[in-house]
Predict the 3D structure of the following.
Amino acid sequence: MKHLLMKTTAGAALCLLGGTAVAQEVTLTVESWRSEDQAIWDNTLIPAFEESHPDIKIDFTPTAPTEYNAALNARLEGGTAGDIITCRSFDGSLPLYNKGQLADITDLEGLENFPDFAKAAWSTDDGANTFCVPMASVIHGFIYNREAFDELGLEEPETVDEFFAVLDAIKEDGTYIPLAMGSADQWEAATMAYTNIGPNYWKGEEGRQALIDGEAKFTDEEFVAPYEQMVRWTDYMGSAYQAQSYSDSQNLFTLGRAAIYPAGSWEISGFTEQAFFEMGAFPPPVQAEGDTCYISDHTDIGIGMNGNTEHPEAAREFLNWVASPEFAELYTNALPGFFSLSNAEFEIENPLAQEFMSFRDNCESTVRVASQILSRGEPNLWNEMWVLSANVLNESTSPEEAGQQLQDGLASWYEPQQN
Amino acid sequence: MTDATTQMADRRPTRRRRRRAGTAHIVVFLAPALLIYTIFSIYPLVESLRLSLFDGLDDGSAVWTGLGNYARLLFDSNWSVRFWNALWNNLILFFIHMVVQNPLGLLLAALLSLAPRFGGAYRTLIFVPTLLSVVIVGFVWELILSPLWGVAEGMLSAVGLGFLYAPWLGLEDSALTAVSLISVWQYVGIPMMLIYAALLSIPDELLDAARVDGLSGWWIFWKVKLPLILPTLGIVAILTYIGNFTSAFDLIYSIQGVLGPPDYSTDIMGTLMFRTFFGQQTQIGDIYMGATVASMMFFVILVGVTIYLVGVQRRLTRYEM
Amino acid sequence: MTDTPDTSRSRRGRSKSWGTAATVHAVLLGYTIIALFPVIVVILNSFKNRRGIFTEPLALPGPETFSLEGYSTVLSEGSFLLYYGNSLIVTVVSLFLILLLGAMAAHALSEYRFRLNGILSVYMILGIMVPIRLGTVAILQLMVQLDLVNTLVSLIFVYTAQGLPIAVFILTEFMRTLSRDIKDCARVDGLSEYRIFFEVVLPLVRPVLATVAVFSMIPIWNDLWFPLILASSDATKTVTLGVQQFIGQYTVNWSAVLASLSIAILPVLVLYAIFSRQLISGITSGAVKG
């Protein structure tokens, strides 16, 4: 076997030499989990790039999100992965860099266009090496049916009490299901419920850092309280929400049958297309009036290059373009709801996206609590959070137990949490 | 069905003749299958099993750990809880298939073998779900059972049983049963066809003889047909057993996803192996632990098949002769 | 084991009492409806617009809800014709190899006594027990070395390897029950071992071959995994993969999703309708002979 391997490596090297000498035009293949974006890449982004770089062709070949990690890993191990790789943030990509499967791009000129907090999501822990260009973050909050609100004379709630008053009013009226949320696809419960409303309790970055430093525990009040609020949600969710899947929730809201949708901003483009009513958005309600609000503004998607690409020059050129203000504007407006992390200033056209963007003016941003460092061990904290958040909504695990289990799992391998 | 003694007598001279024919044709018959099978199935699998004896380092290299991974899987509580849970769920899945799918397949096959009018049409149509991709089956059943679409709820209400409706796929107590029954719905055609073919191959003269003896249809089925198709039932059982570890994964994966929700109640060896091997979201795939889970799956299947081959099958074939 | 006149079966059918026949039909019809209901729901709703799907999922498409928007989306976006071609080539070639090579191997294992027989029988069965998917990484590396990535050939090899063990297992079981008399007669007549296999054994196991064919076909046609890993390029995509990606792309557009599902279902049904007649006649003629 080893013999065969060596022979083919030699063969590949030969091909590589021949390739660069003869070929004028290279094609870069882009790996991504965003299959919804196929049309945007084909019709907007790729033509724009190819116009300024006629010698590089781009082929966007997404894999469904559920299969992305598995398929990408297999292709990386087998050596058939694309030249350009879409990166999940933090620990989702760091191991790929450590294995040399993502190339070091610290010296890429375009990275200057990004603030440090954005680059941190795709850098080593000490910040010395960066391996992906930040593409976008997603902001969490609530999208609501503005017509339903007008009809019932409701206003955007600012505090938790107001929020439940609004839910009560909708429930009493009976026309709409108050909250479009299900627990069948567990990630919804973790992403759109727990880490959506949680930062208001654990004060965003402050609480997240405290966990990393070992100064706070998941059993602390501020990490259990969001679960307690979620238990209260269940009275306002559709009947049989235990089997309600993510796409069920989406349909429920866009068909006008539910009034409020706990959301991630990535929904904006789809909802704008599907819903026939006007929509508005509000950030997660705070506990008492005047409290600082915190939002989950999660660095979600980056783009890097395969460590073993045959066209490193072309790949760098492409990444530089992705880092440019031109791309930032094209991308954010083609995909309202994916907010560019670039320093570049530009106008966002979609009104709903503008509303989400405006959360940043009044609220402090933080990333999902389990995304950095804390999900590096076994059991995987983010997986546990999916399962337990869904359990809390299903009322099969109490908020205290959920906090306890998260803490036990984390403390079993994470040293700063072990004393 | 020739008399056993004549068959024994037949065999001796044949063997001698066979030996004279040389072995070249045996090689020709076996080589192509063995070659393709070895290169594209056994070699990659052995490669995977080999990996279960190694542990990965951060830089992508591997170190030998012997049985360390197995010890982790069976005794480290992070792993063992998931492992035993998955194995248990697999056994429940197998049990439901044995008491629902296979008897149903036998019933349908028995009825079809009576050659009713439109028998061909029934047979063809009942087999249709088996042909469908799990992508389709998963999507369709999720829709039908979905509280949002209200098909299941509406149909139950129409016959006054609306109160029975529950979001089965989302409840810990019922999710695994619901998924198993969807699987039964999809695959019942396989035991049906296998048993049907076996029933048809029973020589008519045997049945005629039984009928001359004055046995009723019911008795003929129990006393004559059933014993004769026992080897087929044995094959069906062992295929069901293996299928629960291999192909059941696809259905659960497409309906419930890779974490076996809610709260791991539909997590089986296949999903455990898949997410360990290939990772999911921030959990990075660990091919070494994944290979370990895969190897355990292999040993569990091996135990079942051995029991079948040593215990059940030997008795069945003797009975048949 | 000898030929019996075909009439006995129909005679039996006629002599049955009316009540039994009614019960038989009730059970079979009942189950047929259960089997077809979900498929019909999908096809029915694929002809409706999104509102119609949600408000009255069980109603026939009416003037207000009838819509072909789903189909027009599917046909304008996906190259489904090409995907069908790919699926068809992969399935047919793999099936042919599985049946031919599997029957040859099963014949060797069940007919001849040689030293390695026992070991090889067990060896061939091993593959049933482990999903070949576990070897994905090694398979992919192998395909890279053979320069077969993004070709249909890579899928054919994998599916053949995947289908062989179960084919050999089932065929060996059935071949062991075949009477030796016929083969020995042929040997006395001076037929070569190859002619005995092709002219005597193969016709005898035809019904089993048909059964194995149907069972081997299903996982190949429906597989999602290997097309994803080995041949996900647009030119080599199979229908199942195409549909899966289409669903991923149009999560909320259910008219389009249901239309794509219907498009994936229909040819399978048509092929099966044609094929099943062969299958059934294979089973019945084999039964009479066997």
